[in-house]
Specification:
The complex is a heterodimer. Chain A is built from 19 helices and six strands. By secondary structure, chain A is mainly alpha-helical. Among the domains of chain A are: about 110 residues, no CATH class; about 180 residues, Dna Topoisomerase Vi A Subunit, Chain: A, domain 2 (3-Layer(aba) Sandwich). By secondary structure, chain B is α+β, with helices and mostly antiparallel strands. Chain B folds into three domains: about 150 residues, no CATH class; about 250 residues, HUPs (Rossmann fold, 3-Layer(aba) Sandwich); about 100 residues, no CATH class. Helix content of chain B is about 40%, strand content about 15%. Classes of the chains: A mainly alpha, B alpha+beta. Chains A and B meet through α9, α10, α11, β2 and α12 of A and α11, α20, α24 and α25 of B.
């Protein structure tokens, strides 16, 4: 492992001899991967993750975004493509069939190679099936496993029939057909799931411990945001400033996302107010709302998770006295919606009974605004958090949402904020 | 020659070039050499009083934008508060040399070297802040300032320069809050201002640089009301970017004036790049410079006087004030809570402040890292002269973005085509009146320039008056990623940047790949690239460092030799 301070490569022996410090500069290592049981993290990897997530230390991020980011990095190391899985099947089956089958055939004077191949194939199919159901694997990995099951099933079916004719064994043919058909069935069953819910490889408590260790050795991480302070300690804003208003408002469904946008100067770049549905920042909430009410042409952008709470956010704003009840203010949904998740791949979908319950309790008005497929998706307990995206991606998406609706809403062809998108818009979508 | 040598050149475009102090016979020879032989020097060893105006060329005391005067053994170089005409100086032994174009003074320098401080200022603001110039040894007189030297007959030496503010923008003691009064007063002030600007015009037609925005439309409307023959000029960016032309067309139609569409395609911009850099004299890194050059060029075919709408945003709280207000509201919830007003204001420039370690060559960085960009803002944001936030922002905008960037570049681009440049909003009574306005009359809720809109709503179509506008959107990023893609490999070639030892050699690639950080994305990429291009072009022009393939062995270790679509695909794949 390389020292992040001087770049010297330290072997395990070096690290052990120097009591966990660099042999060159004595800088302590925060992590010792050989002593980490499940997930192994190295100092350079952690440092790179922090730098990448913050776009070279230019953006603030939440601890949960770091959790998602590390999780993605750690998973991607262990993932294998569909082609890789099929190649592995050929290799494993061929190798063990020839090795074990060949050895036993010599001893028994009877060719066991096809039968060993069937046994090895059965085991491989079982492992693939497990992989396609593993909630701690990436959706991409699970999809690759499911698709590989179908291909492997076809291979077993075709090869089994050919071999059974060659060795003139009805029993082998029957086994091959049953295994092949079953494998194809399982593959199709898993593949029919348009999305795969996932679990974190690392727990929040693990990350908290890592961060404590890291910051103890390397100093605090400037771009890591603390938990949002949701205490309503009133702050006086100069009346001179509160006389004015904002061009627009962004309402988030969590204080963490509102805090993230403020920290990254989104309000400055877009002349907008940023509030969360929970009232964050509580200390200036009332003043900000007063300022917003001074703008008769206010546009409200609603930025939310793909969850029952998120999809109902506009409904809550429209029916809350504290927000925009009896107001004609234009509200634009720029948050995550089930149809976007279903259309996209590689999203970190989670699932919980609480979310399923919340989806079933959505008001009729919200339910009517969703398609049947969207409702089914939510009622299955699925949800996707905005924090699963990097701060850079979230800001890009929100920028694009605002720019797009500026054009649509005003009927102008101004499109000032869109300047520069031509030919460079490939990152600006949740997809 | 033991006393004074002075010289005035009165050609078009107008220039002040002169010297003062204790020299010898060779001083006059040098002076003559600085000028064209066709322009005979005017020598007056007794008294010099030269006054230059952006709108009238050589002028009297009241209308002067820059002046050089000698009286009672003192040389005074000064500029008015709007900063429309620049003035530079350098000292060679006991002689002060001065000129209204910095490049005139370059031959006097023994060595032409870049001022790192000026480079840093340029990278922060996209203009070189006064009193710096990008060339070591040449100073600039700041707007609203007089600089003076005295001479000692005994020792035959000249003193160190003394600088003093000749004018301060300051808030009125009592603020006007009544909307009706303000509207009536403003209408009168605008009409008076246009009368002053048109009083010397006969039947000759004038040009208006019409963007389709509020300010230039007001200028056109007032000129028409004053009975002046007006011809409007507007930019056409083709398919890319914001289409302002339609609004300009609407204004022209409503005022019944002819409108000339000026092609500002990326190819024309590329072709006019060198001419613009030469016209500007100093590097100005905003994307509007070449389009404005093209507008002036087109106007010069029909007229000798052009009007622009520059300065309206500064006086009446245009949209650029809004970010600072939003930042003030959220200041206590920002992780860098201690961020001062100065820092917030610095953010509004959106250039390379804060990216020093990523953009400079290590040697340049070692000299830059201890510089404070805030120092160049202090006078402008000094709260001693203003109480309210909007007045403070107005003073800052006038002294920084207006006097150091917008107005001097507008003058330079007009003068390059022999045009007298007139700006309605550079009218002193009008400008001073705005310092007596209450903030709510300027920024009414979220409506910027409210009182100006109310005052002119009867003169222009409502959709022109009340629409939201955010400056002239030159589609730089789109052009950089398409039409100029291969040119970037030449203009900002790694080998060239490496040889200059100012910027990181791979800076252009880092910008387009988004490696400078998340804030430099989208249109900011084009703005930063353009700023770098203009600097490089200025270097090549001013310091005679050829900027073409023949001068440097251009390297290929950059992405710009790839077809843009291949590079985009590669970036997508890397993601």
């Amino acid at each position: 492992m390389k020292c992040i301070q001087c770049g010297t490569d330290n072997t395990l022996k070096d690290r052990t001899e120097h009591l966990g410090s660099c042999k060159n500069c004595q800088h302590r290592f925060a992590f010792e991967p050989t002593q980490m049981p499940a997930v192994k993290v190295t100092d350079p990897m952690f440092a790179k993750a922090i730098a990448d997530l913050s776009a070279n230390n230019s953006l603030f991020y939440t601890p949960k975004q770091l959790l998602y980011f590390l999780d993605r990095r750690l998973r991607s190391k262990a993932s294998m493509s569909k082609a890789g899985l099929i190649f592995l099947y050929f290799f494993v089956t061929g190798f063990f069939s020839l090795l074990i089958g060949g050895f036993l055939s010599d001893s028994l004077n009877f060719s066991l190679i096809p039968w060993v191949a069937i046994v090895v194939s059965t085991l491989y199919v079982y492992l693939l099936y497990r992989s396609s159901r593993a909630v701690r694997a990436t959706a991409k990995q699970r999809r690759a496993s499911a698709e590989s099951l179908i291909v492997v099933g076809v291979i077993i079916l075709v090869a089994g029939i050919i071999i059974s004719i060659t060795i003139e064994s009805f029993l082998f043919c029957a086994f091959s057909i049953v295994l092949g058909m079953m494998t194809i069935y399982l593959g199709r069953l898993q593949n029919r799931q348009s999305e795969f819910s996932q679990e974190f490889l690392i727990g929040q408590s693990d990350l908290a411990e890592w961060l404590m260790r890291w910051q103890d050795i390397n100093g605090s991480i400037a771009q890591l945001l603390p938990p949002p302070n949701e205490q309503a300690t009133p702050i006086t804003i100069s009346p001179e400033i509160s006389t004015y208003s904002f061009d627009r408002l962004v309402v988030c469904d969590t204080a963490a996302i509102a805090q993230l946008l403020i920290a990254n100067n989104f309000h400055f770049e877009n002349n907008c107010a940023i509030l969360s549905i929970t009232g964050y920042p509580q200390s200036i909430f009332d003043t900000t709302m007063q300022m917003l009410r001074r703008n008769p042409d206010l546009k409200v952008y609603v930025f939310h998770d793909c969850s029952p709470r998120g999809v109902g956010l506009i409904h809550r704003l429209s029916n809350s006295e504290r927000w925009f009840q009896n107001s004609n203010v234009l509200m634009i949904d720029v948050g995550l919606l089930p149809r976007q998740i279903r259309a996209a791949q590689g999203m970190f979908i989670q699932s919980s009974a609480e979310s399923a319950q919340a989806a079933k309790q959505l008001s009729d008005e919200v339910r009517n605004s969703l398609s049947t497929a969207d409702l089914q998706w939510l009622e299955a307990g699925n949800f996707v958090e905005l924090e699963s995206f990097s701060p850079q991606r979230l800001i890009q998406v929100l920028n694009r949402g605002i720019a797009g609706t500026q054009e649509l809403g005003s009927g102008e062809s101004d499109g000032f904020l869109l300047i520069g998108d031509r030919g460079y818009a490939y990152t600006d979508s949740f997809g | 020659m033991d006393k004074v040598a002075q010289l005035l050149r009165s050609a078009e475009p107008p220039q002040i070039v002169g010297c003062w102090g204790y020299g010898d016979d060779s001083t006059l020879e040098v002076l003559s050499a600085l000028l064209d032989a066709t322009c005979p020097p005017i020598l007056d060893v007794a008294l010099l009083d030269v006054r230059l105006s952006a709108s009238r060329f050589f002028t009297d005391r009241e209308q002067a934008d820059a002046w050089a005067t000698v009286a009672e053994e003192r040389l005074i170089l000064g500029r008015d508060a709007f900063g429309r005409v620049p003035l530079y100086w350098t000292q060679v032994e006991q002689v002060i040399w001065f000129a209204s174009r910095s490049q005139v003074l370059l031959p006097l320098l023994q060595e032409r070297s870049i001022s790192i401080e000026a480079l840093y200022g340029y990278s922060c603001f996209s203009y070189v802040p006064t009193p710096l110039t990008p060339v070591q040894g040449i100073g600039a007189i700041a707007a609203g300032t007089e600089m003076s030297w005295t001479r000692d007959e005994q020792t035959m030496c000249i003193s160190s320069p003394q600088s003093s503010r000749s004018f301060e923008w300051r808030e009125a003691d009592t603020l006007l809050v009544d909307e009706s009064d303000a509207i009536a007063q403003l209408q009168t002030l605008l009409k008076d201002a246009i009368d002053r600007e048109t009083s010397d015009l006969g039947d000759e037609p004038v040009g208006v640089l019409l963007s389709g925005g509020l300010d230039s439309s007001i200028v056109a409307a007032l000129l028409v009301q004053a009975g002046v023959k007006v011809r409007a000029y507007s930019l056409d960016f083709g398919g890319a970017g914001a289409s302002e032309y339609l609004y300009a067309e609407q204004v022209a139609r409503s005022l019944n004036i002819p409108l000339v569409k000026v092609d500002a395609s990326p190819q024309r911009i590329r072709n006019a790049l060198i001419s613009t850099v030469q016209a500007l004299d100093l590097p100005f890194g905003d994307g509007v410079t070449v389009p404005l050059f093209l507008l002036s060029e087109a106007a010069s075919r029909d007229t000798r006087v052009i009007f622009n709408g520059e300065g309206g945003d500064q006086l009446f709280a245009g949209w650029t004030n809004k970010p600072v207000i939003a930042a003030s509201v959220y200041q206590t919830h920002h992780p860098t809570e201690e961020e001062s007003f100065t820092h917030q204001y610095l953010h509004t420039f959106h250039r390379l402040w804060g990216y020093e370690a990523l953009v400079y060559d290590p040697m340049a960085y070692a000299r830059v890292k201890d510089l404070q960009a805030q120092d160049w803002l202090q006078d402008a944001i000094d709260p001693a002269f203003t109480t309210s936030l909007l007045s403070r922002l107005r003073r800052a905008s006038l002294m920084l973005k207006g006097a150091q960037n917008i107005h001097p570049r507008a003058t330079a681009l007009g003068w390059a085509h022999g045009l007298k440049v007139r700006s309605l909003f550079c009218d002193m009574p009008l400008a001073q009146w705005t310092f007596g306005l209450s903030g709510a009359l300027c920024l009414h809720g979220s409506c910027e320039k409210y009182i100006l809109k109310r005052a002119v709503e009867g003169w222009l179509p409502p959709e022109v008056v009340w629409r939201q506008k955010r400056g002239m959107g030159v589609p730089l990023t789109a052009w950089c990623f398409n039409e100029w893609w291969h040119d970037l490999g030449d203009w900002l070639n790694p080998n060239r940047l490496r040889a200059e030892q100012l910027w990181q050699p791979d800076l252009a690639a880092h910008v387009v790949e988004g490696k400078l950080g998340a804030a430099i994305a989208g249109r900011r990429m084009g703005e930063v690239l353009w700023m770098l291009i203009m600097w490089e072009m200025w270097m090549a022009n001013a310091l005679h460092q050829p900027c073409d393939r023949s001068a440097h062995r251009l390297s290929w270790n950059h992405p710009f030799w790839l077809p843009p679509w291949v590079w985009k695909y590669r970036q997508k794949w890397k993601e």
